[in-house]
Amino acid sequence: MTQRELPEEYVDGYADILIDASATGRRLSRDELDSRRSLGERAARSPYGLRQLVVAHLAATRAVANSLPLPPSGREARAVMDSALAAAEQAVDAFAEGYERAQRLAVRQEEAARREFIDDLLYGRSDLGRLSERAEHFGLRLAHAHAVAVAAGPERYDDLHPVTRLVEFALNSRFGDRRTLLATKAGRLICVAPGDRSDVLDHFAKRAHDATGGGQVAVGRPHPGAGGVVHSYEEALNALELAEKMGLDAPVLRSEDLLVFPVLTRDRQAMADLVRTTLGPLREARGGARPLLDTLTAYFDAGCNAAEAARRLSLSVRALTYRLERIHRCTGADPADPMHRYTLQTAVIGARLLDWPEREL
Length: 361
Fold this sequence. Notes:
- This protein is an alpha+beta fold.
- Strands 1, 2, 3, 4, 5 and 6 form a 6-stranded mixed sheet that branches.
- The protein is elongated and about 115 Å long.
């Protein structure tokens, strides 16, 4: 790029500064430096990159140097050129400072706008029409269905965390610009993707699980519209919360696979009554309800296989069988009886969801 290709406003007064400084050997004044910084800030909002602008200033410097009337003495000529180059160094440095300062400010403003958008998107706190307009800037078309995946790990993550950068690089390398938004919220990794791009969320889940050292990922169902993103996000959060309560250790949780649990707890009072009525008598057992409740949990998780349940509890099969008999005596319900099993298993699920017996119902 030559000086002629650069808008004159970005080199306005530059040649005059060099000529005057070369004649007197002075340093640039504060006003001159401020003017260069201001031009740099304005240039940061132009289509030109800093490299192009610096090259153009160097071309202007060369043009000034070629036009300077040099004294016949070689020493004096070198002094004039040194003064011109020193002035050019000061001027270009101030220009670059203003350019970089404006860019940093723009980046901070963009980050703030992005964070505000993500907060509004995930909590639905903004006008949906306005939110859809803002979403276009970040590559989302909220008129379509979207699904949200949430990854939780052993530590909290923000946008600058190495784990976040690693997952972002993996997604971009695999899919490029696929109208996908990767962000962080409340220390978790968030991925918003079009509802028909399950491959994107599958890849995010795999990479996030690996990058977080075995963290758990929950995927909400696709839902249309701006409100659909909130709905899917809440489903993913609920799945993570459910996994913690129920001891689900699958690396990837899909909300559609867990729909039975919201159904069971939709009538919370009815579930509390079932837990109290069915499992309440276990409180009177020696050692309290917890050991026997854990026994039932292991037994049902093992598919009612006594040997596998005993292994999980580090018990002998005989000891496990004895515990099941105690449960039968206390509750009147036999875990081995198919007619009683469903009631007991539903009550055990309710107890885990409602934090019983640690919490009173």
